[in-house]
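PROTEIN FOLDING TASK:
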Amino acid sequence: MKRWVKNTLTASLCLIPVGLVIGFSNSWSNKAPISCVGSSGVKPFVEELSKDYMKSNKNVDITVEAGGSGFGIQQIAEGYANIGNASTDPYSAVQPAGKDGFREQWIDNNIKTITIGWEAICLVYIPPKGFNFNGAVNINNILSIDESNIVNFMRVFSGINEGISWDSDSNISNNSMWHFRNTSLDGQWPGNDEQLLKDTSIIPYVRAGGSLTSGTAASFVNGTHLNVGTPEQPINPYDLLSTAQKSAFDSGEYGVSFGIQQTDEANSRAWDMFTKSNIPGQIVYLSSGFIAQNQSLLNNKGYGLMSYKETPYDIRQIDSASGYNWFRPLNTLISVDNQDSPEIAFIKYLLTNPTLLEQIGCKALTNTGPDNKNELKEMFPSMTSLAELGEWYSDYALSTTISGPMHDSLWSTPEEWPEPELWNFAPIPKGIS
């Protein structure tokens, strides 16, 4: 495998072959290098877990770099990294033939997508100035997203004021916080809080580049797990947006309504821009990993987290029947050709430390997801017990080279790959492998 390391100390950001670096480092140690590159959302989880792993595995040296999901997909496909990290579906980047895609490399290198856990998409907001709180009304339950308001919420975040309508309160703005309140608290708002919510408009903070390049933006759009149709005919909220609104999310060419603000992809950069403005009504979507690392800062600033169907954010409730289910997968992309490689040993470790995962803001794969499905069994269907991860046959990886349903037979040619589906979320989403 070709390995390269990014030299971030040079202004040109040139790439140096890792072999040159290894030539120096191996003279001092015999550590096996493992390079992990990609999603800024996956990075903090893999980074923290790698520190713990290296405490008891001193023969490896793991480096973790961000750069975005697309970058991680490219690096693993072209052999410049041992592990690619992605919080988005690799299908669209891999599937096209020729120079615009990586499907030949995906097949040649036997690359698989392995989900190590779930991460929530958290909606951080700045409450109205002068807002009051009491026993029933607290900072993390006054705003809530559900089937009744999610489509209009996304329309606001597209920056395009099309199709937004409300059954009542037509005398207030389309992006008023009041439309996104926790309705179970109606009649309990202390002081003039009701009027403050009506008078305060949402200012959306979105990721530049759109969902085709930002894993965080893609998860914001496609990870709500809200059905605005019927059980028999489910509808993804995205499907009810106008053509222009869909294009805005896909391309990153957002409209200019509602004072929309664009940020860089990294959670830290989005947070910096959000806090610098610090205007009541601002809302930004951030990963649960970032929230876990910065909860005290969030509390000190008096910012709140929006609820999901009146359920406050709780990492332990991700992927549960009635929990906080706006989430995305944390994916690692890896070649399974060499079953004895140090990177595969590291991936096994990632899958078998659920307690540590949850401490850093990630919900581990469980057997108590929707319908009590065993998610590890779904991903590795030949396995009868967790101990069998030690055998790690290549067909234990996801059953397609990119995405789709999981069972023992492997699709091995492009013609056999299924088309990605936006609406099938149990237990590991198709189209968001």
